[in-house]
Every structure is written in structure tokens, then in C-alpha cells.
Amino acid sequence: MISRRTALRAGIGAAGAVGGAALIAPAFSGGVALAADLDPSAIAKYAVPMPVPRVLQPTSVSGTTSTYTVTMKEITKEILPGRRTRLRTYNGEFPGPVIKARSGQRVVIKQINNLAQPTSVHLHGAHVPQDSDGGPMDLIPPGGSKTYTYPNQQPHANLWFHDHAHHEEAEHVYRGLSGFYLLTDDIESRLDLPEGLDDIPIALREARFDESGELVYVMDDFMNRNTILTNGVPWPYFSVEARKYRFRVFNQSNLRFFDLRLGAGETFWQIGGDGGLLEKPLQTTAVKLSPGERVDIVVDFAKYVPGTRLELTNTEGPGPAEHVGKVMQFRVMKNLTVGAGPLPSVLRTMPALPPATVQRTFDLSMDEDGRPNAQGYINGKVYDMHRIDTEVKLGVPEIWTVTNSNKLAPHNFHVHLAMFRVLERNGRPVANDGESAWKDTVSLKAGESVKLQVTFESYRGDYVYHCHLIDHAAMGMMGNLRVV
Questions:
Q1: What is the mean pLDDT of each run of 10 residues along the chain (484 residues)?
Q2: Using CA atoms, how far apart are residues 463 and 130, in angstroms rounded to an integer?
Q3: What single DSSP character describes residue 105?
């Protein structure tokens, strides 16, 4: 076996460039060799249409409360032509369903666990009471259920829900336990943005299949997950008419970073991220996403003649470019419907940040010397459910400096309960771009440091912060936060 350290030094690690031959080594789980891998070259590119996730309808609506029932269950589905794959899903859907919510209107979800493993449902990016946060030890046993209440007392944001059961979360999410939660408000809904069939959520994720079509899960397996799934299918195409479309792109991968480009350097507009809209549209040719991050973009296909085909590509490694360098294809058709007008010049107003009176430092690291059973650390400590690592006061602004002290491995940093603003990256103020807006997850390549400002102003209780390369969190890179 090639160690993580050897692979990273060879330039094929999670921070490396796309390119080179595929590296396929025998995989082992508990000392038992797994089935041979399916070569991703056997999967045709741009041969199947991209599905659009289904919007879930509430089981009841009373006043300003919408109630849903969701069942976690295992299904089999044809992801690869002619093969069936076992998945762990919400309501039997892969990609997971979409819940649409509105600020100030409560959502209540009864989650039923019909899986053989305990689960915990976390609404990523939400401001919720402790008992509805879906913490790593707040478990739903097999055959049990739990009702989560989401007050939605926060501005619009691109949220998502996924499993968070400690030591189970990485494999659960990898095998399908994730869904979309799109929160809107009056600020967003007043704008003339693409909507309805022109507003498409897209989940990107990595996968590794064996020859029978089953997903292969090995902890921290960053080298061999070289099949890119876009809304649950490998390398699809999506037909668009010649007008504006809004794509809310979610990186629901366990480990993979994306650097997304359209065509041969085509321009498009970034209008939002994790915590909703930017102050103004940002014209760009590329957007970057670490696991857990989201980006909201608008592409105007009106400038392309019908019949045009545009690739959405990825320039971030590891893996062979012929596989991980491709994401999906857009096929432009004749326009039959009037879409959104010109993008507004102003999307929202960002409030000035108050003075911060508390400063803290967080060091992210993991074993990267090839040892078995590698662990992840925050400030040199592995996660302990019984230990409170950080205590903060409700409503007090704080500045956190977060550093990735690894020499090879990338990480990122996700905080429960609050959005934050990134102030600096590697000692330099961030530009007025997507990273300067509200976020809940921020990337840190090896050796990088970010400074962010955060205020926990909604609820008291115990929450967590962690690396959202989910395998790293399962390896212990997580801490307990208490808001008092």
C-alpha cells in the first residue's frame, strides 16, 4: 500500500494538481481485501441526463409552521448503467430531497431511522436550539425517530442536511445521507433572479465503485474516489434553453475540493455562497469549493447558439484529469420561455462588523506519516464528547484564527450555530469576493491560516466545530463549543 504521506509528496494528494495516471491499489477493510475497483474509464461521459432533486412537500401546514416526515432507509438504485448500488437515503432519494423554507416560518421534521445504524441529522448552517442541531452524540437508534424543529430565525441561506453520528457520519454521507434546505426571505425573493425551473440545486460528490457497482468506502480514501457524481449520476449532461439559469452548487463530498470552470474560460456570475447572497454580482471564470461549501452562480446561456455544448470542468486534484477533471456538460437548446431579466447591480447590504473583544486560536492537524488508524486533532486534541473545548458568551463578537499546521493534508473549518465573516487569509485581507460574504465553512490548504469574526447570538447550549472533510471529523478533528 502507498501511504498518504508518500502519495501527497508525489503530487497526487488532495491539494495536488489534476493529472497523471490513475493510482489504484488493493483496498483493505478490517484485514479483508475488497472487490476489485471499477475503472472509471468504463463509464461513458455525458451520456445520461442530470436529474433535478425533488422538492419535498409538507405533510401539513398550520399557520407559519410546515411539518414534514422523512424516513432514512437503504435502497438500491442504478447509478452506473446495468449495475445497482446500495445507498443510505432520505426518503429513498439520491440525490436527497429539497426542502424550501422561509425566514420567520418554522419547519418541523420527524426523522425516522429505518437503517441498521444510529444516525443524527444536522442542518448545516442553521441557527437552531441544541436539541435540534443534530450533534454527533445526539443519536437516533435503528428503528427510532426524532423530531427536529427549525425556527428559521436567520436570513436567507443555502443550507443542507446530512448525517452527523460520530464515527458513522463519514460513511453515511458517502453512501447518500444528504439533502438540500433552501431558506429564502423578502430580500432575496424581491430580486429578479432565475426561479422555478431555472433555479437548480446541484450536489457534487466523489465516489469509488467496485466492479459490481457497489460503493467502496475506506476511511480517508482520497486517492481512489475518482468518479464524480453530479446530482447522483456520473458525468451527466443537462439541457438548458438560451436564457439565464441559477445553479446552487453544493460540495457534498467527503474529501474532494473543486475548482470549477465553464468551457474555455467562459464568464459567469457568482451571486452567493454558504450564507446567501453577496452584496453584488461578481463576474468570474472560476469558483472554488471545499467539502461542505456552497456557491450560487448565474449562467446566461442566451449568448450561445442552440446546439452549443459547454463543459463544467474541475482543475483540482487528486486523480486523473480524464475523470476528476470533468463534472458535467450543458447542452444549449432553443429558447422557448422568457426568463429573468438583467441581474440586479445590488443584491443585499452587508452590515458593518462590530468591534470584537475576544480572540482565539485553533490549530488543525492530523497524522500524515502513513501510520494505521491515523487521527485528527484540533489544538492537539482528539474529539472527546465529555470535554468542553471552547466556552463563548452569547452575543459577544469574537475573532478566531484558524491554522492548518499540516505540511501536506488540506482541511477546512465548519462552525455550528453561527455564520461568520472571513477577515484575512494568510495575513492578508480577503478581497471583496465570495469569501468576504457570510459563511459557515472555510477552506485551509496545508500551511494556510484564516482569521474570521463570529458572534453566537441565537441560542445557548453545546455545539461543535470541526473539519468538514467529513472523514477527518470522524477521525477526531472536532471540538465541543458551549455558548453561555
A1: 35 34 36 74 96 98 97 97 96 98 98 98 98 97 98 98 96 98 97 96 97 95 95 98 97 97 96 96 96 98 96 95 97 87 93 94 95 94 97 98 97 98 94 84 97 97 98 96 98
A2: 7
A3: S
Q: What is the DSSP string of 394-426?
A: TT--EEEEEEE--SS--EEEEESS--EEEEEET
Upper half-sphere CA count for residue 190 (Cβ side, 13 Å)? 6
Measured in degrees and rounded to the nearest 5, phi and psi for residue 166 equal -60, 135
What pLDDT, on the 0 to 100 scale, is given for residue 34?
62
Alpha-helical regions (H) of 191-324:
321-324
- Looking at the DSSP bridge assignments, the partners of residue 295 are 249
Q: Angle 459-463-468 (CA atoms, 0-180°, nearest 5)?
A: 125
Distances, alpha carbon 365 to alpha carbons 291, 384, 455, 468, 480, in Å: 17, 16, 25, 13, 17
CA distance 36 to 432: 47
Q: At residue 169, what are phi and psi to the nearest 5 degrees?
A: -60, -40
For residues 306 and 331, what is the distance between their CA atoms, to the nearest angstrom? 8
Cis peptide before 429 (omega within 30 of 0): no
How many whole angstroms separate alpha carbon 377 and alpha carbon 363? 8
pLDDT at 432: 67
The per-residue pLDDT for 338 is: 79
pTM of the model: 0.93
CB proximity list for 424: less than 8 A, separation 6 or greater: 430, 450, 451
Laid out side by side, the sheet with 178-184 consists of 98-102, 178-184, 157-163, 121-124
